[in-house]
Amino acid sequence: MEMKMAVGVANWLVGKVLTKLSDGLVSTYMASSELGSNFLTAKNQLMYTQALLSASVGRDVGDDPGLRGLLGTLSNKADEAEDVLDELHYFMIQDEIDGTKEAAAEVGGGIKGHSIHGRHVARYTLGNCLPCFSSPRTQGDEPPAVAAAAAATNSEDKPGTSNDDGDVDIKLPFNRIAMSKKIKSVIEEMNSICILVSDLLKVKTANQSSIALSTHVTTERPPTGSIVPQDRKLYGRSDIFEQTINALTSGTYHDKTLSVLPFVGPGGIGKTTFTQHLYNDEAVKGHFPVRVWVCVSTNFDVIRLTREILGCIPVTNAITNASTVEPTNLDQLQRAISERLDSNRFLIVLDDVWTCKSERDWKNLLAPFTTGGTKGSMVLVTTRLPAVAHMVKTTDPIELHGLEPDAFFALFEACIFGRNKPRIYDDDLVNVARDIAKKLKGSPLAANTVGRLLKKNMSWEYWMGILEKNEWQSAKNDDDILPSLQISYNYLPFHLQKYFFYCALFPEDYRFYDLKKITNFWIAMGIVDPNCQNDKNYLDELVDNGFLIKDSDSDGDEYYVMHDLLHELSRNVSSQECVNISSLSFRVSDIPQSIRHLSITIEDKYDESFCQEICKLKSVIDIGNLRTLMVFQLYDSERGYILRDAFEGIKSLRVLFIASLPEYLPESFSNLIHLQYLELIVPLGERDNKHSPRTLPRFYHLRFLDLFDWHDHIIFFPKSISRLVSLRHIYSSKEFHSRIPEIGKMKWLQELREFRVKKESVGFELSQLGELTELVGQLAIYNLETVASKGEANDAKLKDKRNLKELKLIWGAGQQITDGDVLEGLQPPPNLRELGITNYGFAVGPSWLCSDISIKRLESLHLNGISWDTLPPFEQLPQLTNLKLENIAGMHVFGPGFGGLTERSFMYLKTVKIENMPELGEWVGGDNSPLFSRLESIVCHYCPRLSSFSFLECCTNLCRLDIINCPKLSQIPPLPQTSTLTELCVGYGFQASLSYDGKYLSADGYKGALAFQNMDRVEVIRIFSSPHVSLSVSDLQRMKSLRELVAIGCASIFSAEWFDAVVLKELAAHDKSLDEENISVAAGLIPEVAISKSSHPGSFRLEYMEVTSISAVLIAPICRRLAATLHTLRFYYDEVTETVTEEQEEALHLLTCLQSLYFTCCKLRSLPRLYGLSSLRKLSIADCDGIQSLPPKEDFPTSLLILDVSDCCSREIKEEAEKLKEANPCLSVEK
User: Fold this and answer.
1) Exposure string (b/e) for 462-497, b if CB count within 10 Å is 16 or more?
2) In angstroms, rounded to a whole number, what is the distance separating the alpha carbons of residues 290 and 339?
3) What pTM, to 2 d.p., does this model score?
4) How much of the chain is in helix, strand and coil states, percent to nearest 5?
5) How many of the other CB atoms lie within 10 Å of CB of 750?
6) Which stretch, 69-73, 674-678, 1018-1022, has highest mean pLDDT?
7) Which of 331, 397, 569, 836 is least crowded, fewest Cβ atoms below 10 Å from its Cβ?
8) What φ, ψ does residue 264 adopt, rounded to 5°?
């Protein structure tokens, strides 16, 4: 571990010990224990040492192996001290729960005090080698001696440590004397090391200058220049390279005075090489008369950089003849640059930028370059840090990622062989090289690193050794991959180094979706202070520093992921503390003894060799002192015993995560008194009838319990689960939450999704909520009909839960309410954002919502099944934007002037949803309808009597309109009434519907009018059985994106003129309802288009066409217009045409690009000759019962590959198709 990291870790761990020593109860105990009066002295020494360590963080204290060793020892002792103090705190919690004084500072005198003291002496006398507590897994499983001692010494313990419901013995006996001696020993040892460390630090800091880490870290990578080494060819970036050249010289940036384009990516990805090639490209040289290359590194000093840039700009003759006074300050340097540039277009490269202290510094650096008159000047910045790229950019950065496999392998071979690559080399070597290349994840620097290793020895055995041992990870030269990446790690602030350090425990390509979850993991590890989070997004900080990538999955959910090589770096820097067993071939001998955190991320079933190695772990590492155990996959639950046996005796865990959990495994971890984070995942097929661990209530330090994957399949959990008094979060189903008895004991709980009042069951009274003042997020309270009075409601103390954001108050449907003031007593906290009230059958609403309003920050209100005469005055809720009214009896009219509402009641609302309102007949707007202009969403479902929205046209900002099963609603304006309305749905059961999402319009039997003028971005229109719908030319001219139109039963939709108004790629036009004289929509339309003088050749862009009439399309002028693009033509259920005329056949032959032709024509008696369709690949004949035979083979084009007669009933046709296949072996017949 590097000295800076060692100092930081020691400082952090000593600080954790001091925090525990400062706890009131622990401090009192320490003062009364064997340390006695020495406690304060010891604590002062620790504080003194921490002060020196804190002062040394960020300073250069050299790299003294002795000091580094002492710091490591101090860190280990701090871990021990934290364990023993945590253990003491555990028994203090147990005393608090049970009302005992076993771990109290003074046990007192009298019979009770002497009895307690006697028990501790008895336990200590049994053997001072025993731990401070006896830890039975279940009743009766202790060794006989310990069991006898426990029986003898616990005779006066508080009863109730076991029960008849399957719970285990909860209470662990405490050995006071052993605890005191253990604390004394570890504190004294820690203190003695502190003295040595303090003395050394004083000497070091006295002799070394104080240089902040952010300015001290030097780039171990050598400075860069603009010259491209001869052997450094640009691989796999030709497309982005050409695009960038064009953008620099003639495209995007050409008309701008100055543009800043960053190139961002992890170390070794090829940013500098890419930029060097740009810099030296002939087109770039010709375009930029002045080019400057500066390597910035970590020292972003404006004056230094300005001076360097000035030195790189050629001096003009005019300046040479002028004064030669050397500029000394920033102003003179900047003026000198402006003079030398002399309005020339310039290109400046700032390579390897690590930091810029402020935006002000950046603007100061750019100041002399923003005054020139010539446009198109550029600044190119290369950086590893997305945060830097974001600050300096004037245009979107170019992100460089790993090379594609083929390009990377070409580079890899060049790194191995140089210019002497053999044309053919051994296949075995090629295969090994490809396997190695896959592990390098497209990194050019990795290709260089490993290429150097492979070229040393061209034997298969040597290359296989490199592959199997990942030897490039141990390469130590500055220009090797991991040392290069470690520069980035060394540059991180210490708190981010800690977060990155423990990412090694997760599998490669692991996606972090839940920020809260990973933060909880870090809290349990002790690297995040839960009291100082301030909602910081630590993952985003790692993104800004280039250590994580932020992306979205196919569902649009954001996640964070680490680049594979950075994952290797994480494993490398944490290798003495963290191990991730990710291969069945791992060997225990490769694991350091100092490991404290272990994860298993193997994706395959465990084999016998793996099981044997796992069982050897105990002989190498101290299993008992593991802090983290994470098992990401346990494919074979029968092999779970391997983990049980391998980790038996584990006791110091802070984090336990097990996926695919065998039933018996949790009971194997019964004495985890330090445990803070527990996540158990059940195999998908084994979720039914699961039991949560019976030992769960024993984990008093547990902060985070994650059983979310179990959903509602837990049929049993310990009734004493409320002993988990430190619990902050329970990630599980809401049903699990509602089944926890005496939840009021968990006073730190922050997450309770559901609570059900059960007066007949002990521990489910409403008063249980009274002490839960830390609740955040949402809470739903059910069965409120059982609450008899306002006083009982007050006991929930809802208004004291200041962090609660969403509250649902639910009474049983149809239940009699005996006290109308119950809701009055359920007053929410003033910061509440969302409120729902369901089935409160009383005529008057509560004062805190309806008169003396106390929740003025409310944003969403849902009222369901209420019977209030007057609705709340929404205008007094200035942040209320979302209103939902449901199942409200007696409401006939909704709007201003009714139910206590005024015109101002709607002035803030953005979303209104009305659902299941059987008596509502009208929604009125009042005299001041413009107040509805703020509305963005209206949803109206199942209102059978609702007849009008008289104000809908006033909703100028409406984005969503959703009307379902409101059959009497008739007064609706043409939809969408504004271009902002891009989420539209109107449905009447299964009979007719209208839907529109901004790009896709579907209308099926819709009788209302459509406002096509407001659909300027629509791409697809599908209209069925809507004969009244028509499209004008002006409407179509607005639809620049329209590419597909399907119209069935819509005689009025087309006009001859609009084919020139829009470029379609797909058209389907059907209308079976018309008589033979007007066969189809297209039949009446397309001949008009053919003779239209306004249309011009090439105005059609149809690629797909489907019509119900052969005669509508097979017209020579039309086919000429379609010939250039049409590749699919489908005659769909033409029920009129019997024969194809000679003129129609000639027109068909004009479609020279046609590839697929479909006939579904029930009266057609013969096919036309098709020999002229030189591009035709597929011919389909379906439901053409009139066709009795196929044309002769010479009437088919030679290009035909597929003949589909599968839907033909005629046996003769299928036989003739087979004969055609015999004559043309390339033809495939589908029958």
Assistant:
1) ebeebbeeeebbebeeeebbbbbbbbbbbbbebbbb
2) 13
3) 0.77
4) 40, 15, 45
5) 17
6) 674-678
7) 331
8) -125, 145
Three-state secondary-structure class, residue 115: helix
Is the CA virtual torsion 55, 50, 748, 853 positive or negative?
negative
Contacting residues for 182 by C-beta, under 8 A, at least 6 apart: 84, 132
Provide the sign of the torsion angle of the four alpha carbons 886, 887, 891, 892, taken in this order: positive
Contact (CB, 8 A) for 1149 and 1086: no
Q: Is 131 left (phi over 0), alpha (psi -120 to 50) or beta?
A: beta
The span from the CA of 841 to the CA of 120, in Å, is 60
CA-CA-CA-CA torsion for 265, 267, 272, 277, nearest 10 degrees? -70
* The pLDDT of residue 838: 96
Measured CA to CA, the distance from residue 1189 to residue 1207 in angstroms comes to 14
d(CA 97, CA 92): 9
Task: Give the CA dihedral 494, 495, 498, 499, nearest 10 degrees.
Answer: -140
Specify whether the CB–CB gap between 1103 and 1065 falls below 8 A: yes
Reading the block at residue 499, the tokens are 């977060």
The pair of structure tokens assigned to 171 is 């209470």
Determine the Cα–Cα distance for residues 207 and 833; give it in Å rounded to an integer.
58
Other Cβ atoms closer than 10 A to 358: 10
Q: Could you give the domains of the chain?
A: 3-215 (no CATH), 238-399 (3.40.50.300), 405-474 (1.10.8), 752-860 (no CATH)
- Report yes or no: 872 and 894 within 8 Å, Cβ to Cβ: no
CA 315 – CA 115 distance, rounded (Å): 95
DSSP conformation class of 623: G
For position 155, what pLDDT does the model report? 37
Check residue 1029 and give left, alpha or beta (phi > 0: left; psi -120 to 50: alpha).
Answer: beta
What is 251-294 written as a DSSP string?
STTTTSSEEEEEEE--TTSSHHHHHHHHHT-HHHHHH-SEEEEE
- At residue 1053's C-alpha, the angle toward residues 1052 and 1058, to 5°, is 120
Q: Please tell me the predicted confidence (pLDDT) of residue 1207.
A: 81
DSSP string, 18-81: HHHHTSHHHHHHHHHSTTTTHHHHHHHHHHHHHHHHHHHTTS-----HHHHHHHHHHHHHHHHH
| Tokens (6 digits) for 522 | 């870090």
Could you give the CA distance from residue 602 to residue 633 in angstroms, rounded to a whole number? Answer: 7
pLDDT category at 168 given cuts 50, 70, 90 is low
pLDDT for 126 beyond 50: no
**1154-1213 residue pLDDT tens:** 999 999 988 888 999 999 999 999 999 988 888 888 899 899 999 999 999 888 768 888
The CB density around residue 568, as the number of other CB atoms within 10 Å, is 23
Whether 314 has a pLDDT exceeding 80, the answer reads: yes
Q: Which helix (H) or strand (E) holds 767?
A: none
Are 267 and 484 contacting, i.e. CB atoms less than 8 angstroms apart? yes
Determine which helix (DSSP H) or strand (DSSP E) holds 399, and give its type and residue range.
strand 398-399
Bond into 828 cis (ω within 30): no
| 556: amino acid identity, one letter | G
d(CA 796, CA 773): 10
- Quote the pLDDT of residue 46: 85
* Inter-axis angle of helices 359-366 and 302-312, nearest 10: 20
**pLDDT of amino acid 1052:** 61
Say yes or no to pLDDT of 307 above 80. Answer: yes
CA–CA dist 826, 767 (Å, integer): 12
Is residue 1148 over pLDDT 90?
yes
Most trustworthy range by pLDDT among 137-141, 360-364, 474-478, 491-495: 360-364
Strand ranges, E, within 891-1016 = 893-894, 911-915, 922-923, 937-941, 948-949, 960-964, 983-988, 992-996, 1000-1004
Query: Rounded mean pLDDT of 591-600?
Result: 91
